[in-house]
TrEMBL record:
This is Potassium transporter. The chain crosses the membrane at residues 102-123, 193-222, 234-250, 262-282, 308-327, 339-359, 379-406, 427-449, 461-484, 491-511, 517-534. It comes from the Eukaryota. It holds the Pfam family K_trans_C. Residues 568-766 form the K+ potassium transporter C-terminal domain. It comes from Dillenia turbinata.
Amino acid sequence: MGEEAKCIEIEAVHEVKHEEQNQIRKSFRKNDLTNNDSFYLESNKIISNSNWSTNSCQGLDWGTTLKLAFQSIGIVYGDLGTSPLYVLPGVFPSGVQNTDDILGVLSLIIYSLTSILIIKYVFIVLSANDNGDGGTFALYSLLCRYAKVSFIPNQQPEDKEVSNYKIDVSNNRVLRATAVKSFLENSYYAKHILLFMTILGTSMIIGDGILTPCISVLSAVGGLKEATSSLNDNVIMWISVVILILLFQVQRFGTDKVGYSFAPILTLWFFFIGGIGLYNFVVHDPTVIKALNPWYIVQYFKRSKKDAWISLGGCVLCLTGAEALYADLGHFNVLSIQISTCALVFSSIILSYVGQASYLRNHPMDSANAFYRAVPKPMYWPMFVVAVLAAIIASQSLISASFSIVQQSTALGCFPRVKVVHTSSKYAGQVYVPEVNTLLMLACVGVTLGFKDTNQIGHAYGIAVISVFTLTSAFLILVMIMIWKANIFLVMLYALTIGALEILYFSSVLYKFPHGGYLPVAMSAFLVSVMYVWNYGYRKNYLYELQNKVPVVKLKEIASNPKVHRLPGLALFYTELVEGISPIFTHYISNIPALHSILVFITIKWLPIGKVPPEERFLFRRVEPYELAIFRCVVRYGYTDGRQEQGSFEQILVDNLKEFMKTDLLTSRRLESQRISTEVDVLDEVVSNGNDKVEKEIKFLDQQTLDGGITYLMGESEVVSSKGSSLFKRFVIDYAYGWLKRCVRQPDEVFKVPRRKLMKVGMVYE
């Protein structure tokens, strides 16, 4: 009986061994190599490993979604929810001349909110998210993944294998989609226009983040003048400044804590404005329900003509904050935004406007302060307190959006390096950017002190808001045609309805350019200049390294040179290139003829996606022969990913390197794999020899990290214009980009490299 059991055990071991051999054969065939240079064809044998697992691709349960929906009320809708404070005063600053005009304006507000807020943003734009992330850069990254429109030539075939990289593209082969894609890929000017539109949209959203706190807080605090006439505009202004400074000081606590703190207050605000609006509708003039008939819009334009067109600049303010639904999407998810918008926000805002319109039908000269005049006297002080709190919260939506979009643009090389703090361990995408927070605070205080008046700020605000709408629609139409491959009639319907409405609004707000409308244009021009200079310098730096990269043959010569000493330890040499070696490496060797026993070239690469699953983050490559102990590692991040602390990053990197060593040594012998395809005994010998080498190499790695530790080698390049460059190029590169590069955070600060382990190598790039 014992002999029989022993035979069964031997057979089982033999079956397992035979299955293992089959897997190795498959691995050999799959990883069959060519004789091409390894650093120039990184797609042939790069292996990704990780010991992590991720749940980032799984959907959220209903409980979490409802929590996010509640939390989003405190973050996303403050600006949109407080717009009733200043919309009708902006449309009728000097009183209502014809009470029927109120019906036309109310009808405009209702159908603008329905078409742009609900149809466009809630049900169309939110669907064009980039794996849960929104904003102008999310749309741009979608286009970059589908068409080769990026200016940085660092794309790799492996990028498409990242699970989040894939785009759900319609299978319909539509000629116009192919034609548009081909045009964008082959037109240098089209690529520049796309990049400019992206940067402009980003600048306008940051401009919104400056103007939103100013107009919201000034409008709410201005209600004090209804209670006491002793307060003048200067007192209101200084109270607003104090509130704004306090608001920006709480941003460091993060969206998670701020959202839960603000959500109950803003929920109460929506119940207040909805309830008071319903009360005014019943008490004053229920006939305003006629505004549901859009014919009153036509009559309003026939009657008022140019004045009606100018008033559109005030009507558009009812949409302020709609762009935050998309820009803040990374803090929440699509369903949570849709639930909170449709269940509470939309109905409350509509009721508020209907109630104010009913009140103004009986009190047409109270339009300059319609919101507070329409509040019943017993409710005035409770409403004022909630309004001030809501106005403070209103600023949060665009402030959070500014943080998100700066994080995205920084990762994609379109914004100077800044510190990005991930404030929540539970929800990815919730970030805080200290430098941007400080600049927004200073800008808000400056605008409040400079303008003092909500009407002028409203003129500026309108241009910023409608510019973002128009740019989003332009990108959305490209997504509809190229990625969704929507029916051309649906695309035309969108362009001729929502697109035409936005252009009409845009023409109106331009009329107010001399009366404050110049402010967002000036701010955007400054931000666009900074972002474009940074992106231009970043591209030139990358292209210089690409054109002057060191071939792998030269690297082998250097590593094999007996005059180059090999020191104990593991060295991580950071480089921007995903192909070839940075010229800084040879500059380093010419000054310090020594290399560490194990050398890994690290490239931190940002993909045009929101998140990269941790198990797909590392790609490794080896420079043969094995005795050189030189590796290439590409570490891939999405533009909303947070980086680990350097200690944990080191450990994860070493663990992944060990996994690569195990796999690489067993799949590298092409000649053996061809010879042993049917010879089991020879296969056993090859596997055994390979395992021995793996153990020795891993022991060598452990010994080197123990004896010499880990050293970081980073290049610090100074980009200067070449001789014969134009005056403009010399100014941009030598002064503007050079100044920005010196002022912002350095790469070792961004990557959190320990200073005691860091060695920098300087070089001039001409």
